[in-house]
Amino acid sequence: MQSALAVLLCLSTILFVRAAQRVDLPTIPLSPNDASQILDRSLASLSIEFSYLPSFGGNASDPNTLTQELMQRLVERTGVGPDIRPGGITVDSTQFSPNASALELDESSSGGIWKTTYGPAYYESLAVFPNSSKIVIDVNLGNNTVQFARDEIQAAVKYVGWDRIRALELGNEPDHFAGGSRPSTWASSDYTAQFLGWTSVLSRNLSLPKDIFQSGSFAEDPTSQAPMTTVSTIEEGIDTTGVIKIFSQHTYQYSTCDPARDAIATLPNLINHQNITAYLDLWKPQIAAARSAGKEFVVGEYSSVSCSGKQNVTDTFGQALWLADTVLYGASLNISRMYLHQGATLVLQSNQQANSPGFSWYDLWYPVETDRYGAPRASPSFVAYLLITEAVGSSGESQISLIPAPSPQLAVYAIWDQSVLSRIAVLNLGIRNVTASDEEKEATTVSLDLSEYVREGSNVTVKRMTAPGLDSKDSSAVTWAGQSYADGIASGDEVVETLHGGLLTVQGSEGVLVRL
C-alpha cells in the first residue's frame, strides 16, 4: 500500500507535468571530452573570519556540536571534510603569543576589531572540523612586520601540523592596502616584490616545503581597472622562485558596503543564472593564467553580498540556489575549490555599510545563540552544500560541464564519474516566492525529457532541494530529499523519487540531482 506522502507526491508531480513548460536539451555527451578538470572533493569549502573561529569551532572542553554535525553531513557525501581557511580582514591585525589565551580582542567603541592576539588554545577550534579537512593558514601581512607572519606560521606548524595544512597565505585582500597600511601608491608590483621577499625569508628561516604558498586573495573583480590580479602578478614574476602552490582571488557579486550597491542587491538580481555566469566569466583569464603556470586556482573567499550579506536576501532559500549555481559553474570553469565566508559584520569594512554588528546574514549556519538569530541553527542555504557535495561525489574521479538550456533561468550540469555520465543537476532559478499563486507556480515550472539517458533496467533517482518559496527563511521548511537540517541532523523522512519514463519536473526556485 502506498503511503499518503507517496500518493501526494505522485499527484503533485502529475499536476506539475500537465502545466509545466516543456524544455528540450541538446544531447549530453556520454563521455567527458570537453568537461572540467577532475573535481576536488573539497570543492565546497569554507573561509571563517579569523577573529570568529572560536565561535564556530568551540574548544577542546566545549566543542561546537552544531558545527560538528553539519561538517559530518558533508563528509558523508564526499568522504572528506571541506577545507577551512581562518582568514578575512581581521587576520591583518593578528599577533600570536605563546602566553595568550585562545583569543584576545582589542575593540573600538563602535565594535571594530583593530587587534587580535591569540595563543595555542586558538587551534583547539580547528579540532571540531573533520580530520580530513585541510587548513589554509592565513597570516598577518597588513602590519608589515615579517616577524608576526613568521611566529604565526611556526605556531600553525606546531599546533596544526603539516599533514593538515593545505597552504600558507600572506594577508587578506592586499589590493585594499593602499592608503591604509600601505602608501596610496601601493600597486601590484609592490605586492609582488613584498611577496617574493617575505616568502624567501620565511622559507629559509622556517625550512618550509618548496611549494606551499597561496598567492593573491585579491578582493576586486578582475576587470581592466583591478589594481592586482593573478595575471598581473604572474607577469611581474611572482612565480619565479617556485614557492607558489595555489593562486587565489575573492568574489562577491553584490554588496551592502554602500547605498548604491545595496540598492541592487536584491533577490531577483541575485537569483539569475545569466548574471551568475557572466560574473564568474570575469575570472576566466585568471584561471587560465594559473593553470598555464601549472598551479591550481581557487576562490579563497566568496559569498553573494559583501559587507556581511543582506537581511531578507542572503538569509533566505534564495542564497541556496545562488550557491549551487555559483559553485557548480565555478567548478565547470576549473576553479578547484571555493571557500564560502562565515563571520560577522565588521564596522571597519565600510563607513557606509548597511549592516550593524552581529553574525553575517550570509552565514551558512549561526553557531551560537544570539539576539539577532536566536538559537544556533543551520541557515536556509545549508542544503546547497548537500546538493553540491552529492553532485561531486566520493570517487575523486568526477568531472562537470554546463549544458546549454533554452530557458535562460535553467541551469543544467552534467557530471561524469570515472568517465561515465552519472549525474545531472538541474537548477530552476525562475522566481517562486512563498506567496506565489498556483498560476505563478505553474508559469515557472519546467519539465525535461531525460529518457535518452535512462539505461534499460536502471533505477534512476531524484533528490530535490526545495522550500515553500525563494524568500523562505525557515530552515526547518527548507529540505534536501525531504529532510531539513536546522539542527545539523536530518529531520523527517528521506524522499528519493524514481524517475519514471525519463520525464523530470522542476518547479521555479528549486534544484534537483538526478542519479542515472
UniProtKB/TrEMBL annotation:
Would I find Signal among this entry's keywords?
yes
**Record flagged with keyword Cell membrane:** no
Return the InterPro entries for the record.
GH, GH79_Enzymes, GlcAase_C
Q: Which residues form the Beta-glucuronidase C-terminal domain?
A: 413-513
So which residues are the signal peptide here?
A: 1-19
* Keywords of the record: Signal
A matching Pfam family: Glyco_hydro_79C
Q: What is this protein called?
A: Beta-glucuronidase C-terminal domain-containing protein
Source organism (scientific name):
Heliocybe sulcata
